[in-house]
Amino acid sequence: MARGEEVGRDAGDARPDTRRPDRTAPTRWLERRALALLGVATVLVLAVVFYYPVLTVFADAVRVGGEWTGEVVRGVLEDPFYFGVLAPIFGGDFGAISEVAAESPLGLFGFTAYQALLSTIASVALGLPGAYVLSRYEFPGRRTVRSLTILPFVMPSIMVAIGFVAFFGANGPLNDLLALFGLGPVNLLFTLEAIVVAHAFYNAPLVARVTTAAWESVDARMVETARSLGANPWHAFRDVLVPQLLPAILTGALLTFIFTFMSFPIVLALGGFQLATVEVWVYSLVQELEYAEAAALAVAETVLSLALTYAYLRYEARQSGGGRAANPPPRKRLLPDSPSLLAALERVGVLAYAAVVAVVFVGPIASMVAESVTGPSGFTLQYYEFLVQRQAEGASFQTKPGVAVRNSVAFGVATLLVALPMGVTISVLTTRGSRGSRLADAAAMAPFAVSGVVVGLGMLRGLVFGVEVWGYRLQVTGPVAIVAAHGVAAYPFVVRNVAPLLGGLDRSLVESARALGATRVRALLDVELPMVASGVAAGTAFAFAISIGEFDSTVILATGSSSYTMPVAVERYIGNRTLGPATAMGTVLLAVTSLSFVVVDRLGGRWEA
Amino acid sequence: MKRRTLLKHGGTATVIGLAGCTGGGEQGTTTEETTATTTETTTETTTETTEETETATEQSLSGTLKVATYSSFVDAPSSSPGPWLKEEFEKRHPDVTVEYETPDNELNYYIQQQSQGVDIDTDVYVGLNVDHLLRIDEKLGDDALFAPMADSLSNYEHVKESLTFDPQQRAIPYDTGYISLVYDGNEVEQPPETFEDLLADRYEGDLIVQNAKTAATGRAFLLWTVKTLGEDQYLDYWKDLESNGLRILGSWDDAYTAWENGEAPMVVSYSTDQVYANRYDQDMSKHQIGFLNGQGYANPEGMAKFADTDRPEIAEAFMDFVLSKKAQGEIAVRNVQFPATDWADLPAEFEQYAKVPDDPVTFTYEELQGNLDGWVDSWARQIAGGR
Questions:
Q1: Minimal Cβ distance to A576: which of B6, B76, B99
Q2: Backbone phi and psi for residue B173, each to the nearest 5 degrees, phi listed first
Q3: Nearest CA distance, A68 vs chain B (angstrom)
Q4: For residue B286, is pLDDT > 90?
Q5: Would you say B126 and B73 are in contact if contact means Cβ atoms under 8 Å apart?
Q6: Which of A161, A281, A477 sits opposite B17 (nearest CB)?
Q7: What pLDDT sits at residue B322?
Q8: How far apart (Å, rounded) are the C-alpha atoms in residues A357 and A263?
Q9: Residue A99 neighbours by CB under 8 Å, 6+ apart
Q10: Would you state the pLDDT for residue A432?
Q11: Of A127, A356, A413, B122, which sees the most CB atoms within 10 A?
Q12: For A332-381, how does the pLDDT look when each residue is reduced to its tens digit (9 = 90+)?
């Protein structure tokens, strides 16, 4: 916090400041308006790489053959296949409700929401204990483990599918293991359960990470105060600690729900077409170039996601209490200092949780890696040899692993430079605002709430094909477009990690700094951000992860160039009859991202208190 | 859906790109040409400054030929025909460079470009099937994406009549696959002989197919059921298949991986499966081919010349080369599909392991016209919805 005090000293000292050269007027002017300028830049980037492309696709839902029409949207809303019993209600045909209820009560949207709800519950149940262990325990390698929690989040769905089919399969290691204990066999694959577990694999880390950030910045003194006033531990936990954590948990749940509602490749690979989601439909309609119906479905998806987001933000705004300081309780050791029954029970719980983690996370990842060194006749390094050979001899039109690695890392770093300023700017602008700012905040979450298939299609039309302006065709492709697209996809995570903590800060700190002559930006950089460092660090990790794992937009914007990334390479190496090269590339992806996360976290950690 | 009112005129293509942070400089080019006329101009991305004139002679072809295709045609780890074709063709025409383009959304990329009035700078598309043609004709109508070709190809006479699938002769077949069942002979003692057999209790939970909406093999299998059982019966048949524990996964990869891992003993795939099994030294008894009713659903692949190409002679030469005796054998072996011509030399390995059905079946363009979307859509709505 030394830098925070500087502000006070600067303004308080009567002597001229000798440590810092007198700043020139333009710089001062810039600093004063930095937030406004950042705001304008953010809006511009969003308009070009997100709103314009997406709106051109959404327009297809209401513009058919050059005419404005509500027919397509109405057709979708009144179709029981999509909306189940809601369809006759939307259509005002109340007599048909019972008939539809017997035929398809849920409809595609209802089923997708049901699936997303189950997935969310599973992700929270699996993520919360992880957050508890990571934030309350001290053990060797804790920070590294914390860095790696986000790893599943970036795995291309094809790799997750390979890992799951290998690990949970009828002849997989899990069933072999269960057989040792005389249990099983478990047939998890191609069921709703498989989808739910895979979604938990993806999203429990997200829940854990967001909650860990909040847990590490709770104010333990409030709990102690409650205890000293006679509250028992349970009451102190329920009435004091839970309210401090709930916003973060619900953030994780909301993001998970939206994610799993819009999930699609994993659904087909592990569940099957019988369990298709809305997004599966959007994808196949786009494939068939049936844009009007695809756009109508995507609009309905977005309305649902944004409505949920808005409802949540209203709740979050009511929560942001005045002025907590981050003051977490001391961490526990894995071996309790003073043995007691309760402490022992808790450690047993931690062990059981570790076993679950081993099955859900380590199993599939290890199986995927094992596939990359297993040939038709046992252990082999031939797939890695292929990667090396392709790197050395690949033709210009072929995908080279080295180029993919380099691009992924470069785009990841560049994304941070875009997403962090964007996310922090939006957090500042929407924190502690009126109802209007809630709407703005919900709108800022839009990139997260729009189907990836639609974003990809919009980018293809709006950026890759470009627009004709006065006889010039403006196109935006290549690395700049990819980084911008990643930045847009990533900044909502920065916002969701930073804004709640920023909202919880004590206003008087900023006001004092401002009163003492610091500009708004200076106060933000020197006072506020250091106090919400854990949120910024989590946001950074997410932004990097989103960039590394992004597929939909990247594959479209990288068309015809060498700007492909690791997930794109994995997909392109899925060749005829052998998953070897794809799993080898996937293993490289895992290694590179693991290393990157540890580095990103360490760099962020130097900045954390 | 024709929202096209744009005048086509080659203006300036301004590509905003940054080559800074990745070092790859291909994208960062800003090519500028000013034209006072409204004629089509092409922006050459090569550094050659030779002006392409329309008087390219037959003997000396020169320039860059842009060939679009699906990515496994050029990039598959095993053995893609793409690199070989490029090398051989360039050997024959030293002044020609073949450039491959593999957009992720394949043919749709070009249909979308055409419908948005973007100039297409690509010359040949490799990897068309009859569904693609229906989609092009439905979406673009008279706005021709490809030009009729057959008459200008000297090797066209060798193409098997039974494999031609485009009434307008734009798409020229260069290879074909047959969709069949692939089953594990160690698990399935008596393989199913007919579609009816698949409903028997014996095969409960034994078959994996692909989503007919987005996967070619899944769509072929669906059409095969329509062909065999009729359009009034096929949906009921699928209902029965489902109650017999059928699994419908997303892509061919999803399905084949699950089958290889022993999740079910039968999968819908290609009748050339044993060629791979032999190449990768796999247990041949695990890779058995099952032709239901002695049939396999033929899925020929074609190539076509873009109507707007500025290099028609090179495009024709390339397509003729693809139909040549030597290339036909190479493509078959590398793409693991059957040649589309009658004169390809195939190695013994291929003859031995690539199985041909006694009775190949397929729907013609005319039979599918106006029906295909309805058939697939009714099927999809019956299957999905997570009841």
A1: B76
A2: -65, 140
A3: 13
A4: yes
A5: yes
A6: A477
A7: 98
A8: 22
A9: none
A10: 57
A11: A127
A12: 888 888 888 888 999 999 999 999 999 999 999 999 999 999 988 889 99
- Order of strands, edge to edge, in the sheet holding B12-16? A467-469, A472-476, B12-16
- What would the pLDDT profile of A560-599 be if each residue is shown by its tens digit? 888 999 999 998 888 667 788 999 999 999 999 999 988 8
Q: Do A272 and B86 touch (CB under 8 A)?
A: no
Cis peptide before A185 (omega within 30 of 0): yes
- Using only the alpha carbons of chain B, give its radius of gyration: 23
Q: Which of A25, A3, A31, A58 is nearest to A455 (CA)?
A: A58
State the best of B242, B254, B268 to mutate against chain A, taking most chain A CBs within 10 Å: B254
Of B13, B78, B113, the CB nearest to A577: B78
Q: Which candidate, B285, B292, B273, places its Cα nearest to that of B358?
A: B292
Chain-wide mean pLDDT for chain A?
87
User: Position of tokens 């000396």?
Assistant: B60
Cα distances from A91 to residues A76, A78, A475, A531, in angstroms, run: 10, 5, 42, 52
Task: Confirm whether pTM is higher than 0.85.
Answer: yes
Collect all residues of chain A within an 8 Å Cβ-Cβ radius of residue B135: 288-289
Range list of H helices, chain B? 72-75, 81-92, 106-116, 130-140, 216-229, 234-243, 252-260, 273-279, 312-322, 325-335, 348-353, 365-368, 372-383
- Tell which of B263, B353, B376 to mutate to test the A interface (max A CBs under 10 Å): B263
Q: What is the three-state SS of A210-258?
A: HHHHHHCCCEHHHHHHHHHCCCCHHHHHHHHHHHHHHHHHHHHHHHHHH
Which positions 272-331 of B are in contact with A (Cβ < 8 Å)? Answer: 276, 280-282
Structure tokens at B375: 């058939």
Look at the alpha carbons of A264, A269, A271, A276 in this order and tell me if their dihedral is positive or negative.
Answer: positive
SS3 helix, strand, coil % of chain A, rounded to 5?
75, 5, 20
Q: What is the mean pLDDT of residues B33-49?
A: 37
Q: What tokens does A110 get?
A: 């209802």
Which residues on adjacent β-strands are paired with residue B180? Answer: B269
Q: Which residues of A touch B263 (CB under 8 A)?
A: 165, 169-170, 189-190
| Dist. CA B155–CA A111, nearest whole Å | 54
Tokens of A191: 């069921």
Helix axes A278-287, A107-136, angle to 10 degrees: 120
DSSP structural state of residue A463: I
Q: Is the pLDDT of residue B31 over 80?
A: no
Integer Cα distance of A155 and A558 in angstroms: 19
DSSP per-residue letters across B316-372: HHHHHHHTSHHHHHHHHHHHTSEESBS-----HHHHHH----SEEE---HHHHTTTH
Per-residue pLDDT band for A459 (boundaries 50, 70, 90) equals very high
At CA A583, angle to CA A580 and CA A589, rounded to 5?
Answer: 145
Interfacial B residues in 132-191 facing A (CB < 8 Å): 135, 139
Distance in Å, alpha carbon of B374 to nearest chain A alpha carbon: 12
The verdict on a CB contact (< 8 Å) between B104 and A283 is no
Compute the average pLDDT of residues A312-330.
73
Amino acid at A153: F
Amino acid at A29: W
Q: Which residues of A touch B3 (CB under 8 A)?
A: 63, 65-66
Q: How far is CA B11 from the centre of its chain?
A: 33
Contact across the interface for A561 and B27, Cβ inside 8 Å? yes
